[in-house]
Amino acid sequence: MVCPIGPYIVTKDELPTPEDVNIVTKVNNEIRQDGNTGQMILKIDELIEEISKYVALHPGDIIATGTPAGVGAGMNPPQFLQPGDEVKVTIDNIGTLTNFIAK
């Protein structure tokens, strides 16, 4: 499982349109995921409202919203990450985070 976070976290005021942000994931420079937050089932505000019914959210909390289509386990045949793979996640108006899968 990969959950890239950081080195910076942006707040809502720094991302004026969180409901329309492109997210692209590349593995070894091959596009694996290409989505937009507008494709989410629930909008960010709706997620916060629903989660807040069950858990107290505090400033700085992070909500993992899931993943766009294209995960390796769903491919035929499955394509799981391998040691040494480079994973780049680019989010509009935020930047690119690069991670390498450890051996």
TrEMBL record:
Keyword Hydrolase: yes
Gene3D superfamilies reported in the protein's UniProt record: Fumarylacetoacetase-like, C-terminal domain
Pfam family, one: FAA_hydrolase
Domain Fumarylacetoacetase-like C-terminal: 2-100
GO MF entries: acetylpyruvate hydrolase activity; metal ion binding
Keywords: Hydrolase, Metal-binding
Domain of life: Bacteria
InterPro entries given in the database record: Fumarylacetoacetase-like_C, Fumarylacetoacetase_C_sf
Similarity section: Belongs to the FAH family.
Name of this chain's protein: Fumarylacetoacetate hydrolase
